[in-house]
Design brief:
The protein has helices spanning 20-28, 49-53, 66-75, 111-121, 134-141, 151-157, 195-208, 216-219, 226-235, 248-258; strands at 16-17, 37-41, 59-63, 80-83, 100-105, 127-133, 160-168, 173-174, 181-188. It starts with 15 loop residues before the first strand and ends with a helix. The protein contains ten helices and nine strands. By secondary structure, it is of the alpha/beta class.
């Protein structure tokens, strides 16, 4: 069932969710209450929107495709609809919303940069549920020494606690993507980096990412000083260790020592 009769646009990475049971199952993960506001990213044809509406009337939707946005507005006139590219959205503007929950079936090409910005700029939401490509889902929850653990894992885990809820097969989409998807939930972490810490963390993540096989001592040679030396001793980390051996917390405390 193609709900609006609009053809999916390859340029926007559109794969429409057409399975009602899966859509309902995803929305259920938000545990919505009537007094909560939902931010929906990329509602598309409204596969999730229709199930959110049964539970709260207060929905803000960001949709980049103007035609889909107009269709949604026709169907649900009360929807606060913003026709925009979510990658350019100033997330911090939503801090004023008290009971905010976030949901989205994120297109493959935008999921990583979008979550990178969203989770670091907006930490006042209660819960987020996103469907992403399975491999992105695995990177988001990866722990040190895992081969898919990297910059995205480190950064996101400093702001939120991600958890994989279930996997979704390509058969529930039109057109069918070539890969499986994963549905994850995210809740803000206990100790959030302030903006100064976040900037330093971003610098250290950039400095160390893409250098998986290199030893930390060699990558940090030009920065090396007593404080860094002491940090390695205190953490029980050898300068011969590699970036993938450090936990998200260690990345953060190392950033404080280097920068």
């Amino acid at each position: 069932e193609n709900m609006t009769g609009r053809r999916p646009k390859k340029s926007l990475g559109q794969n429409f969710l057409i399975d009602k049971n899966i859509a309902q199952k995803i929305v259920r993960q938000l545990s919505l209450r009537p007094d909560e506001t939902v931010l929906e990213i990329g509602p598309g044809q409204g596969a999730l929107t229709r199930f959110i509406y049964g539970q709260t009337e207060d929905i803000i939707a960001l949709e980049k495709d103007l035609y889909l946005a107009l269709d949604l507005k026709k169907k649900w006139p009360e929807l606060s609809l913003i026709n925009t590219d979510a990658l350019l959205f100033p997330w911090a503007k939503l801090k004023k919303i008290k009971q905010l929950k976030i949901i989205g079936n994120l297109p493959y090409n935008v999921a990583s940069p979008l979550m990178w910005d969203l989770f670091s700029q907006l930490t006042t939401f209660k819960r987020a549920v996103f469907m992403v490509q399975k491999e992105v889902g695995l990177r988001l929850v990866a722990r040190p020494k895992n081969k898919v653990y990297g910059a995205l894992s480190v950064w996101v885990q400093n702001f939120v606690q991600p958890k994989i809820l279930f996997f979704v097969s390509p058969n529930v989409f039109y057109p069918r993507p070539k890969v499986d998807s994963a549905v994850l939930c995210f809740e803000p972490g206990k100790l959030l980096p302030d903006s100064d810490h976040a900037q330093k963390l971003a610098r250290v993540v950039r400095l160390l990412s893409g250098k998986r096989r290199k030893q930390l001592g060699r990558i940090l040679r030009t920065y090396w000083n007593e404080r860094i030396n002491f940090w390695f001793k205190e953490q029980g980390v050898s300068p011969k260790a590699r970036p993938e051996d450090l936990s998200p917390d260690q990345f953060r405390s190392l950033a404080q020592v280097i920068f």
